[in-house]
Write the structure tokens for this entry.
Amino acid sequence: MTKVTMTVNGRPMSGEVEGRTLLVSFLRDTLGLTGTHVGCDTSQCGACVVHVDGKAVKACTMLALEAEGAEVATIEGQAAADGTLNAIQAAFQEHHGLQCGFCTPGMVMSAAALLKENPKPTETEIRHYLEGNLCRCTGYHNIVKAIMAASGQDVSSIAAE
Amino acid sequence: MYEFEFARPATVADAVQALTAEEAQALGGGQTLIPTLKQRLASPSVLVSLSGIAEIKGICQTDEGLLAIGGGTTHAEVAEGAGAYPALAALAGQIGDPAVRNRGTIGGSLANNDPAACYPAAALASNAVIVTHAREIAADDYFQGMFTTALEEGEIITEVRFAVPEAANYQKFLQPASRFAMVGVFVAKYFDGVRVAVTGASEEGVFRWREAEAALSANFSPDAIAGLSVAQEGMIGDIHGTKAYRAHLVGVMTKRAVSAAR
Ligand SMILES: Cc1cc2nc3c(=O)[nH]c(=O)nc-3n(C[C@H](O)[C@H](O)[C@H](O)COP(=O)(O)OP(=O)(O)OC[C@H]3O[C@@H](n4cnc5c(N)ncnc54)[C@H](O)[C@@H]3O)c2cc1C
Ligand code: FES
Ligand code: FES
């Protein structure tokens, strides 16, 4: 076992891991941050997306030891300390961007990465960016709509029934 | 995954040293290797991460005017920073999805040489120089069939050098489930001729379509290859597409790449 230390949602965290421990296992099993989900475990679905040093990555396809010294952001750090949802989360709620909610942590983290790179994405850009995030429930329309709304754009004309 | 030791050296020299251990293996972005380890298709004793080595990351122009990309540079960084070679930047921006592009590296992609990967087409069409810690290998000598390259055990790709063509384009026909190329064609027009490299199609991995190269070198227009086709024999046939389908796509994607070349 090796000690790994990283900053998670602004707080220094450390724990003992094996070489093969995945970042997602460290977050969920060692730190108890179970908001980051594992859908496929094969880097296809994006339920496990977190940010490492500001960049979206699939936590099921990165070793915990690779995140040594990194700044990691997960869904748990998105809302304010008093529980107030951030703009993306609030828009998902407002526009029914989730049903079962399994994909949602990854969707929100991917959306946050997108809006940082591209504060006013078009509908097409959003759909492209979410290529690696699968949702079995919503049919995506409301997710796309929520992200457009979170970026302050008018969503009244977006096809989403 | 079987357990392994993990090392994260800060220099190429230390990584080369660590890779001399028996059953040691390099870890690039892990976007291919970690899934492989999960399936227990590989069982290294030591995984030597290259992600801590600053000297193999980044993009620059060499004195000879070549575009040099560090072996540990991610697809996202190439998409963003290889503006001097727009077709290459565009190719990198189409690999997988954003999270894959934030981890996966050009060195890892070329070392792996997946028969459906994108970078091998760019490297072969540009006759890029694959630079390792030990030597320089021309792309024409580097690719040796599916998942096979000229790399020796423990050899690290430190840099890839591209001569920027007058015009180029990559056309990728998506295999929609994997998001790899069902067929991808990279066309590059240099002052002394055109090169055409095809990925995704052949059981031999990436290959040059020499007939098309000759025709396009004489006349760089889609019409020049209208009468040409590749043989079905040796094409990949699977549930996603038959040999005939892939052979046909090679022609279609080559024409599209020629039309779109800038
Ligand atoms: C969902 C998904 C979609 C993808 N879609 C595409 C696609 O459309 N097109 C495409 O081309 N690829 C695609 N990929 C593969 C991706 O590009 C990988 O990142 C790449 O093939 C491997 O690079 P890596 O840095 O992740 O290498 P790793 O997975 O870390 O390593 C791969 C192999 O290369 C070796 N290696 C790594 N770095 C070096 C180096 N510098 N020198 C020598 N050997 C090295 C390793 O030992 C290993 O054998 C996809 C992957 C995923 C998960
Ligand atoms: S659990 Fe990581 S991509 Fe599906
Ligand atoms: S809301 Fe159920 S998977 Fe997306």
User: Anything to note?
Assistant: Residues 167-261 of chain B form a domain with the Enolase-like; domain 1 fold (CATH 3.30.390.50).
